[in-house]
């Protein structure tokens, strides 16, 4: 499937795979051959350091924007909407159809 999609582009698309808690040293141990193969075919960041706080949402926004949490404003995996008194979104709560996504 990826091979077929790849043919649709003049320039190869960028695919970012983020694995929470997966240190680059795990690749060197040879315990994840499929992920190791992906790294061989592309690139990876051996010396990447997470932003603080080291949580999923802040780090994903940092990766995608190049900004640190104090600049992009995402500082936790939970977000709160004062306008509707909504506890927000969590990585553990699936989004519902039509639910507001920050």
Explain this structure.
- The structure is a single chain.
- The protein has 102 residues and is an all-alpha fold.
- It has two domains: 1-48, no CATH class; 50-102, no CATH class.
- It contains five helices and no strands.
- The chain has helices at residues 2-6, 25-28, 33-41, 56-65, 69-72.
- This is Ectonucleotide pyrophosphatase/phosphodiesterase family member 2.
- InterPro entries: Alkaline_phosphatase_core_sf, Phosphodiest/P_Trfase.
- It holds the Pfam family Phosphodiest.
Q: Short summary of the structure?
A:
InterPro entries: Alkaline_phosphatase_core_sf, Phosphodiest/P_Trfase. Helices cover 31% and strands 0% of the residues.
Structure characteristics:
102 residues, mainly alpha, 2 domains, 5 helices, 0% strand
Summarize the biggest pleated sheet: none
Number of folding domains? 2
Please bin the fraction of helical residues: 25-40%
Radius of gyration: 17 Å
Give the SSE order as H and E letters: HHHHH
Low-confidence stretches: 91-97
DSSP strand tally: 0
> Which range does the strand content fall in?
under 5%
**What's the helix count?**
5
Distance between the ends: 31 Å
Give me the secondary-structure topology.
Layout: H1 2-6, H2 25-28, H3 33-41, H4 56-65, H5 69-72
């Amino acid at each position: 499937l990826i091979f077929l999609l790849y043919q649709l582009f003049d320039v190869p698309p960028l695919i970012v795979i983020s694995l929470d808690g997966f240190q680059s040293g795990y690749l060197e141990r040879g315990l994840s051959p499929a992920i190791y193969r992906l790294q061989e075919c592309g690139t990876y960041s051996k010396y990447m350091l997470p932003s603080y706080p080291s949580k999923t949402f802040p780090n994903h926004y940092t990766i995608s924007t190049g900004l640190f949490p104090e600049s992009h404003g995402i500082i936790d995996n939970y977000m709160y909407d004062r306008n509707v008194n909504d506890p927000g979104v969590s990585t553990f709560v699936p989004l519902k159809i039509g639910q507001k996504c920050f």
